[in-house]
Amino acid sequence: MSRPVLLGLSGSVRRPSRTTALVGALLDALATATGGEADRIELVDAAPVLFRALHRAQLDDAGREVIARVEEADLLVVGTPVHRASVTGALKHLFDLVHHQALRGRPVILAATGGTPLHGLMIEHQMRPLFGFFGALTLPTAVYALETDVEAGRIVNPAIHERIARAAAEAARFLPTSHDDARAGERAGTALEIAP
């Protein structure tokens, strides 16, 4: 069985970025917990490519490659700075280009960074409904970090590390039922039914 692909998406359009550091910490914990292969898309790099397309049919080769990585990953870690009480426009545009059925049943870990504890509610009011539209499976533990939780690109708050570990443990339970394994099981079941 191939290693699951764990894709981190940082919706930040700045570098350095606390959000990118948080997504990276989640990917590291997930790779350790699952043995998966970590990949990352940073919108600071990908957004200029994606903004050349106003809708999916206008994507060029580079844009299609970005969207394919999102649609084919076994698990997504989606992080964003809280921007005007929502996700960044760059991250929303990326998901405007993803096929509406491509993420059905896909495990997703939600993460965000912001300036005050109150901004953390954005995960529940904006991010979960977005992935609910796609039929994705948002895992129970989301991770929200303040500016003071990240220093020099590293998570320094032990409470954030605990939430990261909890999210990784939840993800490890869901990965065996990822879309590729489910399809393999369906093919095996079909083969058994038609065997003489």
3D architecture notes:
The protein is an alpha/beta fold and 196 residues long. Helix content is 47%, strand content 19%. The chain contains seven helices and eight strands, in the order βαβααβαβαββββαα. Helix 1 (18-34) packs across helix 6 (158-174). The longest helix is centred in the first third of the chain and has 17 residues, at 18-34.
Low-confidence stretches: 177-196
Class computed from helices, strands and strand pairing? alpha/beta
Rough outline: globular
**Strand portion:** 15-25%
Mean pLDDT: 90
Helix content: 40-55%
**Intertermini distance:** 27 Å
The total strand number stands at 8
State the helix count.
7
Gyration radius from CA atoms, angstroms: 17 Å
Order of helices and strands: EHEHHEHEHEEEEHH
Report the sheet with the most strands, covering strand number, pairing sense and barrel closure: 6 strands, parallel
List keywords for this structure.
196 residues, alpha/beta, 6-stranded parallel beta sheet, two-stranded antiparallel sheet, 7 helices, 8 strands, 47% helix, globular, disordered C terminus
Summarize this entry quickly.
By secondary structure, the protein is an alpha/beta fold. 47% of the residues lie in helices and 19% in strands.
Structural topology:
Blueprint: E1 5-10, H1 18-34, E2 37-42, H2 43-50, H3 61-72, E3 75-81, H4 89-97, E4 107-114, H5 122-134, E5 137-138, E6 143-146, E7 150-151, E8 154-155, H6 158-174, H7 179-194
Parallel strand pairs: 1-2, 1-3, 3-4, 4-5, 4-6
Antiparallel strand pairs: 7-8
Helix pairs in contact: 1-6
